[in-house]
Amino acid sequence: MEMDVFGKALLDYLNGKYTEDIITFSSLDEEDIIPIPYLFRSYEEMPALEQNALNLCRGAVLDIGCGAGSHSLYLQEKGFQVTALDHSSGAIETCIRRGIESTINSSILDFTRPKFDTLLLLMNGIGIVGKLSDLKSYLIHFKSLLRSNGQILLDSSDIIYMFDPDEAFTAYYGEVEFTMHYKGLASSSFPWLYLDYNILQNVAFECGLRCELVSEGEHYDYLARLTRI
């Protein structure tokens, strides 16, 4: 059975057993840290791009890849009908214990109903696509979960700045492989996609979705809004 490293870290924090953070290793030959307390941040502690996305939410909201549920919790407290979805059982248990009323432990591709007014994918939530070749099928699936006037709010980053300008690519540079390590445990390697805005806009159009650049962050990141054409 796949070890739920991410979920264990969240539950440890919730249970007062926080002693270290998640370490990630990637195909970019980089080691990074996911500070677990940051996953439990309040609205005031969120970057402006995330605050902007939350302020744009409307109607029934599906928080895809909800993690510790900080976005869902904020929206619920504001009176939204919000559902927190994550494939990590530990993440969903964390959300339930934090008081989120509607949760779903599932892969987004296995989730087919009901429909929502807003699909929310934050903290590079579109990264779950993994490979650029799968982007179209994911966007079509997202579209199937939207009500007629629904919207998709997502953020990502263009990581071209991390490469030499003369570097030749054999695959899309935004496709990255990760593993997570926590307290001696390691996840299986998984793909994660960083998506430049132009490609998102082009593929969205192929799927019958209008793509709008809402705002840009300070670290080559952006917030986009997709709606039906």
From TrEMBL:
UniProt GO MF annotations: methyltransferase activity
Domain Methyltransferase: 61-150
Key words, A-Z: Methyltransferase, Transferase
GO biological process, one term: methylation
Keyword presence, Nucleotide-binding: no
InterPro entries, A to Z: Methyltransf_25, SAM-dependent_MTases_sf
Top-level lineage group: Bacteria
Protein name: Class I SAM-dependent methyltransferase
Organism, as annotated: Maribacter arenosus
